[in-house]
Design goal:
It comes from Goekera deserti. Belongs to the TRAFAC class TrmE-Era-EngA-EngB-Septin-like GTPase superfamily. EngA (Der) GTPase family. GTP 1 binds at residues 9-16, 56-60, 118-121. GTPase that plays an essential role in the late steps of ribosome biogenesis. The structure is a single chain. Strand 2 and strand 3 form a beta hairpin. The protein has a single domain, classed as 3-Layer(aba) Sandwich (Rossmann fold). It has 162 residues and is of the alpha/beta class. A six-stranded mixed β-sheet has the order 2-3-1-4-5-6, sandwiched between helices. It has five helices and six strands; from the N terminus they run βαββαβαβαβα. The chain has helices at 15-23, 67-81, 97-106, 126-130, 151-161; strands at residues 4-8, 41-47, 50-56, 84-90, 113-118, 141-142. The relative contact order is 0.19. The radius of gyration is 14 Å and the shape is globular. The chain binds guanosine-5'-diphosphate (GDP) and magnesium ion. Residues 9, 11-17, 30-32, 34, 37, 58, 118-119, 121, 144-146 line the site of guanosine-5'-diphosphate (GDP). The site of magnesium ion (MG) has 5 residues, from helix 1.
């Protein structure tokens, strides 16, 4: 079986946009409305001659009151099933309670966790990304999933972690 990379994070942080970057084509469903992506869609990706499976998570209903609990469950599931976990945070918003809940779970992971500060569309966003050190998951890796900034280096990092 191929190595599995799970992309987790709260709705609207850009998980599906990032997955599309990993795939090099538009396949994952990107929506402005949070919670539209169905739960755990797996895609096969190829980078530097290496194949792997990317799992795009979603399925948190925007109306759900238990968002933090819901994301904690997704993180637990990812820890059991993935070889590498990518936690995506919206750096333009900063760390929310939900992000902190996910981070709390993922800090216990024995699998590598890569913290992605997404929506760093330009240099000015870098200071927002640095604030995510407080999640306790190491260095926040800044990218712009939308424009591709930092995406290639992130993929190198993900493959190195496998
Ligand atoms: P998901 O719910 O986490 O899968 O988020 P989506 O990938 O559906 O993206 C949610 C919204 O954020 C969409 O409007 C995207 O275009 C936007 N978005 C995603 N990545 C970026 C980024 O790097 N920069 C900016 N400015 N917007 C982004
Ligand atoms: Mg999505």
């Amino acid at each position: 079986a191929l190595p599995v990379v799970a992309v987790v994070g709260r709705p609207n942080v850009g998980k599906s946009t990032l997955v599309n970057r990993f795939l090099g084509r538009r396949a994952a469903v990107v929506q402005d409305v949070p919670g539209v992506t169905r739960d755990r869609i797996a895609y096969e990706a190829l980078w530097n001659g290496k194949s792997f499976t990317v799992v795009d998570t979603g399925g948190w209903e925007p109306k759900a009151t238990g968002m933090a609990a819901s994301i904690a469950r997704q993180a637990e599931y990812a820890m059991k099933t993935a070889d590498v976990i990518v936690l995506v945070v919206d750096s333009s918003v900063g760390a929310t309670e939900t992000d902190l809940a996910a981070a709390r779970v993922l800090r216990r992971s024995d699998r590598p966790v890569i913290l992605v500060a997404n929506k760093v569309d330009d240099e000015r966003g870098e200071s927002n990304a640095a604030e995510l050190w407080k999640l306790g998951l190491g260095e926040p890796y800044s990218v712009s999933a939308l424009h591709g900034r930092g995406a290639g280096d992130l993929l190198d990092l993900v493959l190195d972690a496998m």
